[in-house]
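Friendly challenge for the regulars: who can give me the structure tokens for this chain first? No prize, just bragging rights.
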Amino acid sequence: MAAKIISGTEIAKQIREEIKEEVKNLKEKYNVTPGLVTILVGENPASVSYVTGKQKTAKELGFYSVQDNQPADITEEALLTLIDKYNQDPLIHGILVQLPLPKHINENKVLYAINPDKDVDAFHPVNVGKLMIGEANYYPCTPFGIQQMLIRSGVQTDGAEVVVVGRSNIVGKPIAIMMAQKAKGANATVTICHTGTKNLAEHTRRADILIVAAGRPKAITADMVKEGAVVIDVGVNRIGMTSEGKAILCGDVDFDAIKEKASMITPVPGGVGPMTITMLMLNTVKAAKVANGIA
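First reply, four minutes later:
Bragging rights claimed.
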């Protein structure tokens, strides 16, 4: 039997409706409107597309949203001054600086300049540390989306064997930490695999839940997955173009073969991707509540 498709598009839609209701309640009951600023340096086409999507979603949900575009030659000092301005702005609860930045700007210095209470990407070392000890204010958006997909799809994580392929600071490491914690949608036994792992297939075949963020198209094949596993594919790889000029995308797993073996699987596109922006919005709502002392 073919696997059940876990649709990030559908789950994200449900969560956005919940956010919309919460924003309405915050406005009516507390006179609070969640505020998000996205700072874009330069005109990288992919970055422009990502920021446009974030701003569009924020406005649809009823946020106060600011798009701050800066030239590619802005100095590091000027960018840090701009961030400090938004750190001090009571109408802004979430600050997002779109990466990558031009080479003359130190990305870490910029990310560390964001007030941790307004760091809705959860990249600041303070928020990474809080995640590690189980006291996170905000969860990194893509891992947060993965966990919500598992919870809302009824996947049993308590005691499950989870294998994460990839160790990036954005996905691999944080999702491994989150899945290992004693919490809802977690409490699993977690293995992290990476480019230095020997006999990768031995590890992936043990997984009840396989989370793949390897950055390589179809890196995981059907023979590397056990029958009935839940497979979460984080990868988005451009492997060609259609005759109409649209990108042909595929994930980090061989979807067509693995869907005949897994119990549940995420598609690419339409899987983890739509969840990331939605979790950013959820974090911004949380930041607005924290800033205003709302439980």
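The chain has a mean pLDDT of 95. The two ends are 45 Å apart (CA to CA). Your move, everyone else.
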